[in-house]
From TrEMBL:
Keywords: Electron transport, Membrane, Respiratory chain, Translocase, Transmembrane, Transmembrane helix, Transport. It is a multi-pass membrane protein. Pfam families: COX2_TM. Residues 67-162 form the Cytochrome oxidase subunit II transmembrane region profile domain. This is cytochrome-c oxidase. Residues 165-345 form the Cytochrome oxidase subunit II copper A binding domain. The chain crosses the membrane at residues 6-24, 51-70, 90-113, 134-153. Its EC number is 7.1.1.9. Belongs to the cytochrome c oxidase subunit 2 family. It is found in: Membrane. It is an enzyme of class 7 (translocase).
Amino acid sequence: MTAFLIILIAALFVIALWQISKIVQLGKSPEANGADGEIANDADNDRQGKFMLYFVIAMYVMMIACFIGYQDYFLPDAASAHGSEYDSLLLLTTVVIMIVQFLTQALLHWFSYKYRGRKGQKALFYADNDRLEFIWTAIPVVVLAGLILWGLFSWNDIMDVDKHEDPLVVEVYAYQFGWKVRYSGSDNTLGDANVRFIKGANVLGIDPTDADGKDDMVATELHLPVNRPVVFNFRSQDVLHSAYMPHFRAQMNVVPGMVTKFSFTPTVTSEDYKSTEFMTEKVSKINEIRRQKSKELEAAGDVALDPYEFEYYLLCNKICGASHYNMQMKIVVESEEDYNKWLETQTTFETTLANAEN
Ligand SMILES: [Cu+2]
């Protein structure tokens, strides 16, 4: 490996010297360069002009192929109340950018080809055109102002955590490398917490003297009742994490030493989402791949793969350390009834502490 690197460096050094000598040669007078020198002639310009044209065609073909080929990887419909607005904004922005770049790239490369250098041809000196300048200034101003205004209103609405009536208050707690969730119990108020209180069974550092914290419940799965607004309070034990819930179009940084907030209303239960056409098709495709892989594994004497089943997940979206990739928590959106049943099986902080002492 070291020998290869030395040879590579030596080769690059020789190429650099050769290039420098060419630049020195170019710097000399045109006469010294002669007819076959390094200065571009008509044949060179013609070739370069055509390359510009081929390049833009190749770029469009690749772009269209990517849009078609990667369709399967687009996120499916949003499962939260604000999600469709967010998706419309993203779609409109993408469409506008696509139209503009399609036209401008085509023009840029076409003109590079059409007006490629030819001996004796002179460029036209064209100082300015007020009407043209007005058009290409006014249109972007109007379009951008519209996009920005819509974006600002959407942002303010999505980020306003105080707009809901009777929301469910939940804490999402991040640590290297996992998530915990804290439910606020019957008072719907989270008890104070601080990493300094972390001790024994008190894994989230809930203040044992705060009465609001006694009925708090710590869980390892995030269960949410459908159609009820949820206000998330995010806390980190160690480093910067990011709580990412792609199906709900939600993401918020989780910062040590402070509480960050986000709220949304889940609108589709896990069961309903699993039975959408998109998801059943996707899952059967994945399972077909797994079946093929299992055959290979079994032939080699290994254990076959389990079939895949879709679940909502909360993922970490900040590279926070060695096991970052594995930092996820299952999210279950269910009916109010099922949610209450599940909640009854959870243990309050008070009971957890009492059990730990015994
Ligand atoms: Cu993380």
